[in-house]
Amino acid sequence: MRTSVFTRGTTAPPPRRAFRRAVVIAAVAALGAGLLAGCAEDSEDASSSPSSGGGKGKTTITVGVFGAFGLKEAGLYDAYMKLHPEINIEQTSIERNENYYPQLLTHLASGSGLADIQAIEVNNIAEIAQTQSSKLVDLGKTAGVKKENFLEWKWSQGTDKSGKTVALGTDIGPQGICYRKDLFEKAGLPTDREEVGALWAGDWQKFLAAGEKYKAKAPKGTSFVDSASGLMNAVQGGSAARYYDEDGKVIYKTNPAVKDAWDVAAEAADLGLTAKLQQFQPSWDQAIVNGTFATISCPPWMIGYIKDKGAEKTEGKWDVAAAPKSSNWGGSFLTVPEAGKNKEEAAKLVAWLTAPEQQATFFAKRGSFPSAQAAFSLPEVADAKDPYVNDAPIGKIFSDAAKNIPVTVVGPKDLIIAQNLADVGMLQVDQKGVSSEDGWNAAVKAIDNALEK
Amino acid sequence: MSGTTSKSRTAAPLSEGGAAPRRVGGSGSPGPVRSERRSRLYRWDLKWSPYAFVAPFFVFFLAFGLFPLIYTGWASLHQVELTAPNDMEWIGLRNFSRLMEDEFFWNALRNTLTIGVLSTVPQLLIALGIAHLLNYRLRGSMFFRVAILTPYATSVAAATLVFVMLFGRDIGMVNWVLGQVGFGPVDWENGEWTSQLAVSTIVVWRWTGYNALIYLAAMQAIPNDLYESAALDGATRWQQFVHVTIPSLRPTILFTCVVSTIGATQLFGEPLLFNRGAGATGGANHQFQTLGLYLYEQGWVNLHLGRASAIAWTMFLILLLIGAVNWLVGRRLRKSS
Q1: Looking at the partner chain, which of B14, B84, B276 has a beta carbon nearest the beta carbon of A281?
Q2: Least CA distance to A290: which residue of chain B?
Q3: What percentage of chain A reaches a pLDDT higher than 70?
């Protein structure tokens, strides 16, 4: 037949081939369309799945957090699900807040892809409260939320100018000083936590003096404090106003509190008291494990961090003393976006999670210190001792510190200012031996560039 | 196309195996009407099905390539913040003119250039050498080929984190080795050159194998008689490499240069992760902040979408420039050969 010639090559295909080709085209088109549709649906999916997911008629509440936030690890979700069998809680976590936060902003702007509950880091809270409050539910009106339970300044940080409370605090970071008992002993310093605290009580300059004493007889290869930037943040955290004044004006350049903190840290670097490390870098982690520095400013969550990194190797060698002055480092908030599918249920969950009882559990299990002052007197907090740090009465130490933390003024670009002061300016002074003045100028230049729109 | 149709209707009997699709109507079909319809269908098919086949790519390109590109261009002419991305204020070319006097931008551009040179040049030279070695008949060549490609298959994050450890100041293997031969510890991250060298090392490590495989493929296409006649003329292995292999590889080398340059211009993951703790600053003194990092810092740390878009478009223009230079060089090369 002639068809054999046709099929070989160049001419009109017999009907079957045409049909096959049509099928292929259709398939390709369908695939393309399907993929596109899949992409288009995706964003919608993320916000709608919460309500549809879970099955068995349960309501699924999604929680978006950064890092190892701890609510889940503390067993609080499980406890809530036991109390409310109709609720299912799912958590998604993004490792670093730098990645989590911009994504959250884009999701808030587009009103999609949001979890029912979104966590906020303290350095971002002012920006959220000031620019995003219209997209967030007023949690102050949720049943069971009591303003008087919370530390006043924590409550006001999550409240916008019109008095709408868009974020409820989970934890705060009152600081102590964690110190290596064994190293202190070798360097001829006192080791008892009361005496250590007395060594520098009330004045960061005394802390530097203790550092010089340590340095004089320091065990080989160790330094007094981990990093100048860490020290600077610790000092800064004790002042009411840092980078912004109450009217929202940027004042870090002229604020004496910031300058004081800078000077203390620069002096520490200058005196050679620091290990010249950068916090949360691998080499800093290694130094924690190898015990090459003797002190670190220590909010409760830092003890957890040291535990995670140093593990059993340093158990019992660390202890906690009071810091020279009370200050705060870190802490987080929970919000409920308006675009979420289960706003009411989510708000109820937030109210429950931030209630004093749960915050006390959170502290007992994870070391995140309650932002609800009503929790301070609960036995989980008041009587807390941690065997890892020599059975130090951490509940009492941190409660005392928390009570003296001033009402801190937060501003929208706190994070950027803090980051550039620490990771550009002070890091140059500490690691590169740049003069205090040059380091400060470098930081100011970077911050000016970052703040300019 | 339609012109050929009438011609081919009367065309000579088919010879088998013609290359171009040419249509012949009517043969063996029962009626003239049906055949007419089928031929029309077929013509339609012939004309449009290629477009249908390439359509998915272009649909995706429009959605995820062109649209973002244009939107970014649009955003670069506005003052717009990530906290309110829909709230745009027209400022014309202000974002671009500001870049001209932005010392952080120039610093990033300079770093991108030096890191690009520090990584691209050794990378391609080593790749060429490795490809030449692999081109010899050797036992287990498959194993070596797979082995040199493994760095490329490793994720940037994993590789960089290992290198961060290696280049550690206090407890790092590189410094340990240096210490063994009597050099003091080097602060890899803080030095201007040392940090760029360290970042380049990661890039070289990751991409050398990939380029080597491309070279190897091109080398295997070089006819063996060239080598045989060169050998007969008494050329050594080295002379063969220089006078036979390299000239034959010219187009391939040009290709890898272009691809590597584009990669170097967009360098991002390695410097970002090299200083994991400090976000996108690229070191205390911005000493290894590349354009990619600066773009990221402006957009996702400082939340200035407009400024970030301007940087993105500037990078795009730089790449176009590189493309143009490459095209000129390529034309010169073709002419000269």
Answers
A1: B276
A2: B171
A3: 87
